[in-house]
Each structure stands twice: as C-alpha cells, then as structure tokens.
Amino acid sequence: MKLVLAIVSDDDIHAVLTNLTSKQFYVTKLASTGGFLKAGNTTIICGVDDDKVEAVIETIKEHSEKREVPIVGSSGMGAVPHIAMPIHATAGGSTIFVLDVEQFMKF
Ligand code: 2BA
Predict the structure, then answer these.
(1) What is the pTM of this model?
(2) Which H or E run includes 91?
(3) Is 36 in the pocket of ligand 1 (CB under 6 A)?
(4) Residue 62 in contact with residue 19, Cβ under 8 Å?
(5) How far is the CA of 61 from the centre of ligand 1 (A)?
(6) What are 14-53's pLDDT values in tens digits?
(7) Phi, psi (deg, nearest 5) at residue 13
(8) Paired strand residues for 40
C-alpha cells in the first residue's frame, strides 16, 4: 500500500477532489500554506493499493496541471490613457509525493 500526498493549488482542488472521489478513492483534505509564497494551498492524502497509485497520480495531474491564464492589465502610461494589455499569470499546479505505508488499519 502507498500513501499519495499531494499539495494542490486552491485553483484546482475542487476538480481534483471531485474526480478522485467519483473514482471511489478515499481522500483527506488538509488546509496548508506554502512556505515560499505564504499563500494557502491544499494538501490531500490518499491511501491506495500499489496498483492504483498511477490512477491517483493521473487524476491529480489531469485536473491540476500548471497553465498560463490571461489577466487584464492596463498600460496607463503618458498620453495614451489605460490601454488594456494582455498579461499572463500561472494558475494551478500540484506537487506529489508517494510514500510506502508500513501498516494500515481502521477501527
Ligand atoms: P511549486 O514548486 O509548484 O510549489 C507549490 C507548493 O507546493 C509550494 O508552495 C509548497 O507548498 C509545495 N511544495 C513544492 N515543493 C515542495 C517540496 N519539495 N516539499 C514540500 N512542499 C513542497 P510555496 O512554497 O509557496 O512555493 C510556491 C512557488 O514558489 C513554487 O511552486 C515555486 O515555483 C516557487 N518556489 C518555492 N520555493 C522556492 C525557492 N526556494 N526558490 C525559488 N522559488 C521557489
């Protein structure tokens, strides 16, 4: 058995959880904060049999890959007042660890 521990962007967590649970995976969601940006993200833990690890990783990947999203900016310089400029920001993303589970029990 493995424990998949994934730190998921808050942009993607809803889609990741919806799709994992719809595939009957058991998931626990923990509120977390990135040490670098000090912004909120979500850590999920998911205990699965070894042969299901790839399915969990693929589901997380499918719904949380980093992508560029347009945001509307404004030049606002000199005599040309506030022309809308296309600017992009990165959204989404996940970081995944897979750990061996020594014991698993439920009471
Ligand atoms: P990512 O590498 O995509 O990491 C997103 C979040 O995933 C991180 O949030 C952190 O919460 C977690 N994470 C990533 N790698 C980890 C690891 N090896 N161990 C534990 N947790 C891990 P933040 O720490 O706020 O980082 C946000 C983004 O800032 C990172 O995106 C990366 O692009 C950049 N970054 C992080 N640390 C950096 C550093 N020391 N130098 C330069 N850039 C850094």
Answers:
(1) 0.86
(2) strand 84-91
(3) yes
(4) yes
(5) 17
(6) 999 999 999 999 999 999 999 999 999 999 999 999 999 9
(7) -60, -35
(8) 33
Name which residue sits closest to atom 19 of ligand 1, judged by CA.
95
The residue contributing the CA closest to ligand 1 atom 4 is: 95
Q: For residues 10 and 98, what is the distance between their CA atoms, to the nearest angstrom? A: 20
Q: 60 exposed, middle or buried (CB, 10 Å; 0-12, 13-18, 19+)?
A: buried
C-alpha of residue 26 to centroid of ligand 1, in Å: 26
pLDDT in tens, 73-104: 655 555 666 666 778 888 889 999 999 999 99
CA-nearest residue, atom 23 of ligand 1: 34
Q: Is 79 in contact with 35 (CB distance < 8 Å)?
A: no
Residue 99 in 3-state DSSP? strand
